[in-house]
């Protein structure tokens, strides 16, 4: 897959089957749409092109609301890596800024789809909207396809609904229940996030459970429900088993801000400031307040036994 940042240097193709969207998570529903795209391109003897947008359009159109409420399954790098596996020929990443948001649907069609890409077939959903104020849609494109010089094909309602259901199911499972297995079922892979190891208050070390305190690389990244999880943590490409707490540590410090702490099993290296990737395997329990540190230690030992059982079977 060739990745193109922007459209200015993109060389028009002989034949191009094109679709567009945010494709957050590149989950099972998206994979069905991309399979449809590949099949259509094969029948048309053309190359596949996926147009996506970064940052997410809502960060430009509704910045205050998006910063508070929009949580994404994947950042741009993760999305690109997942799309690599889908055998798309070209990925075009368009910067969604204020100028781009003012582009009319006609300009999008003529300047990007026709002049820059040489689209011969456009594959979009029945409810897909584009251009300033979301003025363009399937009916508009279908009615004008002869003038545009490319054929418009509709992704079925069922495929679009599968994608919407998958996105909702993933977010609900993670946010409401911490159900990482359901998220994995819809994603086709373990949900994960990246971050850097930062200084903590070292309470875990004092009670025999040293933790890596992690600061998220992306503030918009979705974090699952507060609780204790069995995880894999990847450090410089090497995988380790561990257990993670997302929460406010009510027994020892009960703060306002959520923290992310990973106790890495059989590990005793200095990894401050290093980047790590945490892959969520199973939610063990909710975060609880214990009657003192001894009760907390007893529970952590039980958590470790359960996490090891999950991670080694």
Provide a descriptive summary of the structure in words.
Pathway: Cofactor biosynthesis; FMN biosynthesis; FMN from riboflavin (ATP route): step 1/1; Cofactor biosynthesis; FAD biosynthesis; FAD from FMN: step 1/1. Catalyzes the phosphorylation of riboflavin to FMN followed by the adenylation of FMN to FAD. It is an enzyme of class 2 (transferase). This protein has about 325 residues and is of the alpha/beta class. It folds into 2 domains: about 1-170, Rossmann fold; about 190-310, Elongation Factor Tu (Ef-tu), domain 3 (Beta Barrel), CATH 2.40.30.30. It has 12 helices and 14 strands. The protein has helices at about 30-45, 55-60, 65-70, 75-85, 100, 105-115, 140-145, 145-150, 155-175, 180-185, 205, 295-310; strands at about 1-5, 15-20, 45-55, 90-95, 120-125, 130, 135, 150-155, 190-200, 210-215, 225-235, 240-245, 260-265, 275-285. The strands form 3 sheets. The protein has a 6-stranded parallel beta sheet, sandwiched between helices. Strand 11 and strand 12 (about 240-245) form a beta hairpin. Helix 1 runs antiparallel to helix 9. The radius of gyration is 23 Å and the shape is elongated.
């Amino acid at each position: 897959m060739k990745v193109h940042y922007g459209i200015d240097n993109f060389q028009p193709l002989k034949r191009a089957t094109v679709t567009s969207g945010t494709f957050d998570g590149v989950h099972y529903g998206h994979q069905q749409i991309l399979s449809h795209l590949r099949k259509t391109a094969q029948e048309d003897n053309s190359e596949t092109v996926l147009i996506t947008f970064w940052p997410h359009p809502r960060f430009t159109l509704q910045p205050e609301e998006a910063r508070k409420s929009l949580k994404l399954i994947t950042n741009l790098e993760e999305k690109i890596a997942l799309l690599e596996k889908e055998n798309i020929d070209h990925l075009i990443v368009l910067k969604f800024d204020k100028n781009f948001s003012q582009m009319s649907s006609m300009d999008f069609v003529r300047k990007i789809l026709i002049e820059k890409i040489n689209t011969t077939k456009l594959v979009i959903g029945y409810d897909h909207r584009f251009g300033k104020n979301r003025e363009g849609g399937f009916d508009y494109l279908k009615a004008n396809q002869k003038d545009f010089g490319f054929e418009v094909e509709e992704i079925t309602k069922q495929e679009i609904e599968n994608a919407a259901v998958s996105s909702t199911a993933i977010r609900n499972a993670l946010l409401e229940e911490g159900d990482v297995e359901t998220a994995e079922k819809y994603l086709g892979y373990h949900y994960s996030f990246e971050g850097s190891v930062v200084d903590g208050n070292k309470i875990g070390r004092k009670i025999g459970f040293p933790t890596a305190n992690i600061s998220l690389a992306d503030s918009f990244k979705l974090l699952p429900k507060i609780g204790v999880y069995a995880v894999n943590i990847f450090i410089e490409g090497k995988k380790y088993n561990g257990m993670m707490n997302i929460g406010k540590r009510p027994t020892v410090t009960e703060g306002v801000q959520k923290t992310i702490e990973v106790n890495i099993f059989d590990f005793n290296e200095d990894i401050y400031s290093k980047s790590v990737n945490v892959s969520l395997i199973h939610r063990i329990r909710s975060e609880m307040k214990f009657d003192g540190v001894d009760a907390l230690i007893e529970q952590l030992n039980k958590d470790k036994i359960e996490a090891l059982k999950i991670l080694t079977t």
